[in-house]
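Why do we care about 3D structure at all? Because function follows from shape, and shape follows, mostly, from sequence. That is the central idea of this module. The next example makes it concrete: a single protein chain, its amino acid sequence, and then its structure expressed as tokens.
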Amino acid sequence: MSTLSIEISEFNQLYDLLSQKTFNLSKEKLHWKKNERSWSILEVLTHLVDHAFVVNFRLREVLAGSSVQLPAFNQDKWIAGQYANDGNIVEVLETYRVILYYNSQLLKRLTSDDWKKSGINPQNAIVTVEDIIKSFISHVHLHLKQIQRILYEYSLV
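And the structure:
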């Protein structure tokens, strides 16, 4: 199995990992925050949807051959501005599932040359499509650990 096949396989598992990690959590656990500056589990999930939107744009800019620097986003302000902790986990997870599915179909169509296409990330570094997808997968795994940490901190209260 090629590296790219493995990455697409890992990409396709992300929704299931998030869904399993948050399955049957009470509303209290989903909305609980250690303090006002930390995120709840629902806010983490909403951030992952936001991140998917941003990565969607970055990915398509690179595939289109754009020379525009890929955008950053202010994650904390996005979470606060959309009142993410007042959201609904079912809607957030379903949105994430659909985004991942749509992008997985795109990834399957890419040629080996497409995976090597590159752009400039917000830190002024050159990144390939492969780098973007690897980073996306790593980012989700980082937040899975964050969700686990939030659940642990909740258990101490």
